[in-house]
Write a structure and sequence with these properties.
Length: 218
């Protein structure tokens, strides 16, 4: 069965590297891929844009193609979203379909700090997306987990519902939402780092521009 892969994140805001790596992952894995915004991410400070705005940006960004979808179930749940609970919910709905949690290499390195992280392997496979600046220096407990789970060929994830880890070597794009928020707050116009659609409706990027206006105001 064709796997379902989800790329979780804050998407504050979504940028072209999110879209490019998700797209490449769908090709490498031959999987349906959904971008899944977190409402209150437990591992980081609260997002600048609220959940409704982040979803509006994602919808605008995803328009015009049908390979990447949107998964909003963590927003519906409210409160902190633990990935392990979300994946268990998906597992119950998708029965034996292979599920894949996609993570950038930076997020993957932090995995041992996540709520009930070892249980993730019981409900899903992990697909680790290469990211510029990240090495293969995984923390020891993660390296131990990988020793028995890692496979080289992404197609191996079609063979069972969960439990494997694969590294996906995607085009290196050194773009982050942090950088984009900084540029917008400084009054810059980060065109071509963000999907074009985000510039077509002034309301979409307004949450990030407010700081800059406040600083400039007399
Ligand atoms: P921030 O700077 O706010 O953390 P971000 O650019 O890292 O933003 P997130 O919403 O944190 O975006 O990322 C969602 C997921 O996408 C994470 O798993 C992250 O590792 C991955 N990701 C984000 N940008 C890239 C990139 N340039 N290359 C590979 N993976 C990425
Ligand atoms: Mg991040």
């Amino acid at each position: 069965m064709r796997p379902l892969a989800v790329l979780g994140g804050t998407f504050d805001p979504v940028h072209i590297a999110h879209l490019a790596v998700a797209w490449e992952a769908s090709e490498l894995l031959d999987a349906e891929v959904r971008l899944m915004p977190a409402s209150i991410p437990p591992h980081r400070p609260p997002p600048v844009a609220d959940a409704t705005s982040r979803v509006a940006m994602l919808r605008a960004a995803l328009r015009g193609q049908d390979r990447l979808g949107l998964e909003t179930r963590e927003l519906a749940r409210g409160g902190p979203s633990y990935t392990v609970d979300t994946l268990a919910e998906l597992r119950a709905e998708e029965r034996n379909r292979p599920l894949i949690l996609l993570l950038g290499a930076d997020a993957f390195t932090g995995l041992p700090g996540w709520h009930r992280w070892r249980e993730l392997f019981e409900v899903a496979h992990l697909g680790v997306l290469s990211r510029p600046g990240m090495t293969h220096d995984w923390p020891a407990e993660l390296a131990r987990e990988m020793a028995t789970r890692q496979v080289g060929d992404p197609r191996r994830l079609h063979e069972q519902p969960a439990g494997k880890v694969v590294e996906l070597m995607v085009t290196p794009l050194e773009i982050s939402s942090t950088r984009i928020r900084d540029l917008l707050a400084a009054g810059r116009e980060p065109r071509f780092l963000l999907p074009e659609a985000l510039f077509q409706d002034a309301a979409l990027l307004a949450p990030y521009r407010q700081d800059a206006q406040a600083v400039r105001a007399p």
